[in-house]
Amino acid sequence: MSDFQVTVKEAGDVVVLTTDGYLNNIGGEKISEVCDSHMESGKNTFLINLEKTSVVNSIGVSILIEIIEKLQESNGKLAYCNLAPIVEKTFNIMGLTKYSTIYSTEEEGLSDLSS
Amino acid sequence: MAPKDQFKDKVSFYLNSLDELGEVLINQEGSSGLTKGVLRIILGTMMASKGSVLGVKRTRCKILSSHGVSLSPSTLRVNAEQKKALADFKNSNLNQSQIKKIFDPKSSDSVAVHFSDLSASILVPLFHKDNLLGIVALGKKFDGSSYRSLDKKILEIICNHLTDSLYNQELIENIKDKRMELRLKVLELQTLFDISLSLNSVLDIEELSSEVLIRSVSTLNASSGFILKTQKNSPILSVLSSFNVDEDQLKSAIFSKSSLPFKSVWKDKKSIIVSGDKSRSFLNKTNYKECIISPIVGNRNISGCIVLGDKESREGVVPFENNDINILEALSSQAGIAMDNAQLFEDINAAKRFNESIMGSIATSVITMNLLGEIDSVNKAGVELLGKKPNEIIGEHYSYLFSKDKGLCAAIESAELELESFSELGVPLLSKSRNTIVNFSVAPLTDQKGDHLGAVVAIEDITEQSKIKNTFKRYVSKSVVDQLLDDDQKLNLGGEERDVTVLFSDIRGFTAMSEKMTPKEVVRTLNSYFSEMIDIIFKYDGTLDKIVGDELMVVFGAPISRDDDAERAVKTAVGMVEALRKFNEKREKQNKVPINAGIGINKGKVISGNIGSKDQMDYTVIGDTVNLGARLCSFAGPLKIIISQSVKDEIGDLYKTRKLDAIKVKGKRKPVEIFKVLT
Fold first, then answer.
1. Predicted TM-score of the model (pTM)
2. φ/ψ of residue A32, rounded to 5
3. Res B474 pLDDT > 60
4. What value does the CA radius of gyration of chain B take, rounded to a whole number of Å?
5. Which is the CATH superfamily of the domain at A5-114?
6. Which residues constitute the domain of residue B430?
């Protein structure tokens, strides 16, 4: 199986996760782990760059919803950028975009979330 | 404190608790926040140090909130027997001994262990009608006293509220689940819709299969998948595309449609779920615990299959369901049609390329035009013939392209109007140049139904052939020229040794005869004599080598050799004699002297080729065979044919012959055997 990769960097208060691969159960868990550990250290704004993730399934999406629910408790935010059209469509249908924001680029997301 | 005041305080304390409970029930969202708040109130109100609220769903029992006790394991199990026993305490509570009776602390039962950890002294089952939604369990009171009836009453009141809230929570959760299910259905439908759209627009098979695969994997929550396709003349299926699988493992695996599990898919044309030990060898190849295989059925035939492995859930790999089969079949049946279309498109392209390469390789110019007379296509030969770039030809009207060739334009017009073919041979193509000689034919273009589409013009550039024809037509018959032009391998005009038959004829006593005639009469007589003779020579495909004075030299076997060269030479000679007899009959009627020619024929090796100076080259043959032929001619009397032994051997019994006395020939030691052909 191909590995799902997550790389993390911090830009001010925003934690940027860059993913690579199929956002399924495994991919979602990896994202969730990263978010959990940063939430424990007080971070609550996350931007996921999905440029290299062209496929998601509903399990991956439901994990993202869980992350959003956790973040809501601490008034945190989850946002995404560089979404493939098919991924954006899936997020829309699964109701993800009601509780999180989509940016077209990482720069746009960072400048908006940092302000 | 007076008992009255004590009671008052107690009532006030309980009322405060209930008031607080109201706030918790109203403000808390989600079962976790709710139970946490309610447990806090219960513990405070009951003055207990340990307690927990369990949520129950079927047999699964989850600690929603707890205090003073270890959380693990967070998921417990409550069995049907225990649930049944708890039902006896609906709207009531259990004391410590009743708890121990149902949840034996000595057993390893997970819920019993949890209650034992709590030292559970009082327990309230939370029933909504007959449905057990949860359990509230409390440890001992701080002060070690036992729970009094008022405590129990207040606990029941609080628990009743908690039950209602948990029921509402469950309803909300159910609605959320239903909403999620609905969204998943929308996603499935959207995927089917998207796929059908992209299937109509994508015509590359690999791109198409990749799209279908990715959408299938994500829609069915599979962890990975691949598409296999059938190969011509082999049962082995090749990998067309894959997603999220170990490529190396896939490459090394052999999948055959004649072995399980594919065999049954191919036989029944139905999707199957592959799991269990029977399919272990196949599952090992793919590292799947379970997979689903759906055939891609196109035009009745199965062109391949989609294999999706390991359906994901939040709790790990779960079995594929019937609904997954339905969705995958819907996707794969669309894929089948689309892949058929893509294959058809590829076949058409291949046929088009094949057609173009044929058109490009043929020497004849082929130009097609539409109903408006605009050029649609032109092949390589056409581009070269017209001396223009393809874009200067395509789209032009034929009357512009062939503006100087009225005949060709008229033929195209007629072909279009009358829907018949027209052709002309050996005409100049003036639109190119005066010296370009072509044969052209024009035919109307129709489709399979016979509807008129335009016209096709085939133009054969015969400029070169015309030159050859002009060169040779003086020497050889048209059929020889045609043969030469058909196969230029036969045309070897360089020097070479070859076997030929030579025929000589000359007019006996011509010099004496010509002296009695005017020069004009001599020329006229010779021309009419030669004309008669040459017709016969060409009739038998002889090559007129030369005419010297009244002498004719004809070669059979150069430039083209044939098996019956000698035979044709003798037939020519016989024909010439017969023609000459008729010719003389006419002359006699005109009171003119007869022409009496003698003919000699020899066969043997000669040197042939273009012989002469660079200014005057002639294709001829030379050698002893030629010289002997000329000698035989000189021996032949008027209207007689003399042939050599070699010619006699060739013609067999075709004509009767009579052996004559052998003759001495210069340069030959032995006398030469000669024969007279009896005509």
1. 0.52
2. -60, -45
3. no
4. 55
5. STAS domain (3.30.750.24)
6. 362-461
